[in-house]
Amino acid sequence: MSEVEKVRKRKKLIRPRGKRGGIKHSKSKNQSNKHALAIAKYHALEKKIARCTDEAERATLIAEQQESGGLTNYQDQSTTGGSVIRGGESAKWCAQVLKEVLPAETKIRLLDIGGIAGTAYEKYDWIEATYLDLNPRAPHVHLSDFFDWPIPSAAERYDVVGLSLVLNFVGDLAKRGEMLLHAHQYLRPRGYVYLVLPLACVNNSRYMTHDHLRAIIESAGYDVVRQDDSARLTRWLIQQRKPKRTKSGNSPLDTVRRKYYDGTVFKKQELLAGAQRNNFFPDIMAAKQVAEGVISSLNIDKSKVGVMELDERNDGSDIQGYLKEKTSQGTVPNIFISGKHLGGCDSLMSAQSSGELDKLVASL
Ligand SMILES: C[S@@+](CC[C@H](N)C(=O)[O-])C[C@H]1O[C@@H](n2cnc3c(N)ncnc32)[C@H](O)[C@@H]1O
């Protein structure tokens, strides 16, 4: 090796990488791993809490979550590389694309769910943001669960609802999907939802891909206006479709389903194999939820509806086996009306649209 090459090689080795420099870089990687582990633990506990039906066990899980610092610690860890107070990383993309799709000089009202410190949109004077969080870190951020935030009158609806890194936070898979539908109620006609998820939720999940998420979004009554991935995040600007003409349902959510949901039932099925992958899936239109929606919209005495949750019973798989033998249907929900087998969710929905269902339940 020539002297010049030796000097070049030495220089290359000692040159610090990025702002942090070589040695500090590996220390900060450890730190990020620690943050990632804390976040993963919080999410795992959140899912267990959502699934848990035993009060005592639930209390133990909540205590475990509190012992590790609770939501405040989670918020601190989940903003690795930036401060909770600064915020705004994903808001920049949202502001850019809104500028592109909206007429010049438009001022907008935005409802930011999971707004933590309420700073994400502060530098955009054309965005009037209202922030909500389960654990607000500034006085102007409202302490509220999105599901409890009052539904505004038509004149007060928002132009945009921000769901940045919120869907993946929710432990109850059904609530993830519900959140997307729930957002319709806060939007002015043809308003937008800004949806952000960790990129791994779509490119490294056994049950999700970009195409699958797009199909779910579309079935929930939105058009994808812009989609883009950064190194860490997948970002979607989606726009509310024109609602279907329909009569109101039995609850606000039922009405939203009727107006915007196109009827596709998404089953949790493996799309990408691999034990190392995560299992992100917004159970947006799980057959069970759809069936519940249809049943709750029926004009019948609800005490006459019986539900047996097979995954919550020790003999659940025996019952499922027996049902398969009797009805040739091994999937759930497996619906009977007055002892007569109707079928699964698809059969329930076609019976509803043909009017057959109303006839079947009329004598109940
Ligand atoms: C990972 S942080 C996201 C912060 C910020 N939006 C961002 O993009 O960086 C998730 C936040 O969502 C909040 N959150 C989760 N579910 C919520 C709900 N149902 N209503 C209001 N806030 C919620 C949590 O309290 C948490 O602060």
Number of strands: 9
What are the segments in which pLDDT stays under 50 over at least 5 consecutive residues?
A: 10-27, 80-87
How would you write the strand order of the largest sheet?
3-2-1-4-5-7-6
Strand percentage:
15-25%
Given the helix and strand composition, which structural class is it?
alpha/beta
Concise synopsis of the structure shown:
With 364 residues, the chain is of the alpha/beta class. The protein is built from 13 helices and 9 strands.
Could you characterize the architecture of this molecule?
It is a single chain. The radius of gyration is 24 Å and the shape is globular. Helices cover 40% and strands 16% of the residues. It starts with a helix and ends with a helix. The chain is of the alpha/beta class. About 7% of the residues have low confidence. The site of S-adenosylmethionine (SAM) has 20 residues, from helix 4 and strand 2. The site of S-adenosylmethionine has 20 residues, from helix 4 and strand 2. S-adenosyl-L-methionine-dependent methyltransferase that specifically methylates the N(1) position of an adenine present in helix 65 in 25S rRNA.
